[in-house]
Design a protein that fits this description.
Layout (H helix, E strand, L loop, with lengths): L5 H5 L2 E3 L25 E6 L7 E6 L4 E7 L2 E6 L4 E6 L4 E5 L4 E5 L6 E6 L8 E2 L2 H11 L1
Antiparallel strand pairs: 1-7, 2-9, 3-8, 3-10, 4-7, 4-9, 5-6, 5-8
The chain binds thymidine-5'-diphosphate.
């Protein structure tokens, strides 16, 4: 039973404060304060069709926080033992993803803007894009 919650504990849902007032809403994310790492890179994904699956990789080094700043999408997160799905549908909500966790993003709404904060600069070498290779690397690590 206890073990079932391990992946979810490693990938917590984050709720960001709203500093807004009568003029509108304001959300601030500060590296190493609102999220567990310093931000080295920001990218965002939009214009993906509803039936597209993105991600489909694990990262050896990078940590990420994913936030749908508009619209919604789903993230399937697995460590090859457990799996869970997060629906990102509020600009004040994010999910933290540590290294060596496999993720797929899908079910993008038409207005989806998926913001990704990353702990590293981009490096293709730290991506594992083959699921079987990912499982092999996990086994080697344990
Ligand atoms: P990809 O990793 O396939 O995107 P996603 O994780 O959203 O499915 O990246 C698409 C292309 O963009 C690929 O050629 C690598 C490039 N890219 C960068 O150059 N820098 C980046 O920070 C990212 C995320 C991707």
């Amino acid at each position: 039973m206890g073990e079932k919650t391990v992946l979810k504990e490693r990938c917590p849902i984050l709720q960001f404060d709203d500093l807004g007032d009568e003029r509108g809403k304001l959300v601030v994310i500060e590296g190493s304060r609102s999220i567990p790492f310093e931000i080295q890179r920001v990218f965002y994904i939009y214009g993906s069709d509803h039936d597209v699956i993105r991600g489909q990789h694990a990262n050896r080094e990078s940590e990420f926080v994913l936030i749908n700043v508009a619209g919604s999408s789903k993230v399937r997160i697995t460590d090859a033992k457990e799996e869970f799905i997060v629906e990102l549908n509020k600009p004040r909500m994010g999910v933290y993803i540590p290294p060596m966790v496999w993720k797929d993003m899908y079910d993008f709404s038409e207005d989806s803007v998926l913001l990704v904060l990353a702990s590293t600069h981009y490096s293709d070498e730290e991506y594992i894009r083959d699921y079987d290779a990912y499982v092999r690397e996990l086994k080697e690590q344990s």
